[in-house]
Structures are given as structure tokens and as C-alpha cells.
Specification:
The chain is built from eleven helices and eight strands. By secondary structure, it is an alpha/beta fold. It has an eight-stranded mixed sheet, with helices on both faces.
């Protein structure tokens, strides 16, 4: 994978290349770009797709000790990634964490189309049982370390109150190991992860929502129809705040929409791009 030096440290990323319209796919907390693999395959023939490995726990390269890894810090890194690669007219697609929302009205000049799929928003933060558990564990000395040990055992990770509640499909043990291996093996990666968890501001996305009505470019809110962690009602409220937005539910999907139903999400992304062509697109 190519790599790029950002202010917080070096991150890896996938880039399909080509001169097609640019799509940036942003993953959530505790995941890496592999959650998007089938969506990347579905978009690759007609789009240039980039997937940065954000420092959210499944990254392999620790960030600098002084790096800002709060939700706002991760959003700033996402903007910096687009700046450094000089990506223009980006279709930015976010899943799980809501950090893309934090760019609206702040650093959104490179975003031409915005897609939010089952993510933290409004007053649903920290989200669900999983989010609240992480939030509480982060405030107990050694709490996150003990909680993370459960991911050594796939049957525990697949519990509905854990990772299993975020996906409708059965999670392969290989993916669980890929996603949580860095956290279980590296103290520095756990430090990065803890920074994010401990910086959670319950009002973060309520405040961010104040900027959403100013986003006058096309937006798509594509929610997992069976999501329990990020309820569809939150997605509908989110879409109502964006002036030029369409709301759609992706069937057979919970929070991890790109994992549960990549074909359904890819179809909606292609329809969205076709319905809202950018200059130079047919």
C-alpha cells in the first residue's frame, strides 16, 4: 500500500488510480480499509477510489505521541489527506464514525458530494451499547485493555453487545483478527485508540449539526435498514438537515453497511453519482 506523511504521523492508503471521479471511503473506529473491499471492487471500473487507513485502532503505524486523535483531530487528518494528494471534487463516503460531518462548514472545500452511511450523528454519541461501553471503559484505569481482550476470542466478539451487533452477516475470524490484531499486539496503537475513546464529547455531533444546513452540495444518507446501534430514525433526521439530500435504507444491513450489503450500497453510490453529475462527468 502507498503511504503518506501527515501531521499526526504516517498512514497507509489504497488508491485504485485512474482519471475517473474521485471517491474517498472513510472507515470507522476499530476497522481499516478492508471493510470497504467489495465496494472498492464495485466502483473501481469507473471511479478513482481511495481508502485511507485512519488511526482508529486497526492502523499498523502508531501516530506521534502528541497527535490530536479526537473526533475533530481525525476529521482534520481526513481533510489533510485530501489536501496533500490534491484531491478535487471528492465524493466523500463515511461509515460508522461521523467524522466527515465535522468537515462541513469548516474544511469542506474539496467535497463535491457527501455520503453518510450508518454513522454517529446528532445525539446518538457515544452510540448504542457498544459506544457507551467503550466510553465507560476509557474512564477506568486499565478498562480499555481488559475490554479489548475479548476480541481474542471470535465467539465473544460476535456477541450482539459487541462487534456482532454491528453486522448482520457472520464476521469471519480472519477479519476480527485483522481489525483487532494491532490493538492486541501494540501498546502504541492502544494509546492512539484510547485517545479517541477518552476524548468523546457527547455534544460533538449535536454541535456539528448546526453546520449541516449550510452544505448546499448533493448528499446521500444511506442507512442500514436493520441498524440497532445507529437507528434509522437518526439517519432520517440527519437527511432532513442537509438541504440537497436523499435518504435511503440499505436492506439486510446493520451499522457495517459496506460489509453487510456492499452490492446494495454500491448501487446507491452509482445512482447518486449519476443523478448528481459533476462538471466533466457524462
Amino acid at each position: 500500500m502507498p503511504e503518506i506523511e501527515l501531521s499526526a504521523g504516517t498512514i497507509d492508503y489504497e488508491d485504485t488510480g485512474g482519471d475517473g471521479p474521485v471517491v474517498v471511503l472513510a472507515h470507522g473506529l476499530g476497522f481499516d480499509g478492508s471493510v470497504w473491499s467489495e465496494v472498492v471492487s464495485g466502483l473501481r471500473p469507473d471511479f478513482r477510489v481511495l481508502v485511507p487507513v485512519l488511526p482508529l485502532g486497526s492502523h499498523r503505524r502508531p501516530m506521534r505521541p502528541d497527535a490530536d486523535l479526537s473526533a475533530h483531530g481525525i476529521a482534520a487528518l481526513l481533510a489533510e489527506f485530501m489536501d496533500r494528494l490534491d484531491l478535487r471534487d471528492v465524493t466523500l463516503v463515511q461509515n460508522d464514525t461521523g467524522t466527515a460531518q465535522l468537515l462541513v462548514g469548516v474544511r469542506d472545500e474539496r467535497i463535491a458530494r457527501l455520503v453518510l452511511t450508518s454513522c454517529e450523528a446528532l445525539d446518538n454519541y457515544p452510540p448504542g451499547v457498544q459506544g457507551r461501553t467503550l466510553h465507560r471503559a476509557g474512564r477506568i484505569p486499565g478498562g480499555l485493555f481488559l475490554l479489548l481482550q475479548s476480541f481474542r476470542f471470535p465467539f465473544l466478539a460476535r456477541m450482539q453487545t459487541s462487534l456482532g451487533g454491528m453486522a448482520k452477516k457472520r464476521l469471519p475470524k480472519e477479519l476480527i483478527a485483522r481489525w483487532y490484531g494491532p490493538l492486541l499486539s501494540s501498546r502504541a496503537i492502544r494509546r492512539d485508540f484510547a485517545k479517541f475513546c477518552r476524548s468523546a464529547d457527547p455534544d460533538c455531533y449535536v454541535k456539528a449539526a448546526q453546520n449541516l444546513p449550510s452544505f448546499n452540495r448533493p448528499a446521500l444518507v444511506a442507512w442500514g435498514a436493520e441498524d440497532r446501534m445507529m437507528p434509522p430514525a437518526t439517519g432520517r433526521r440527519l437527511a432532513e438537515l442537509l438541504p440537497d439530500a436523499r435518504y435511503v435504507e440499505i436492506p439486510d444491513a446493520r451499522t457495517l453497511v459496506p460489509f453487510d450489503n456492499p452490492a446494495g450500497l454500491t448501487t446507491e453510490l452509482r445512482r447518486f453519482a449519476k443523478d448528481h453529475p459533476l462538471p466533466g462527468e457524462s
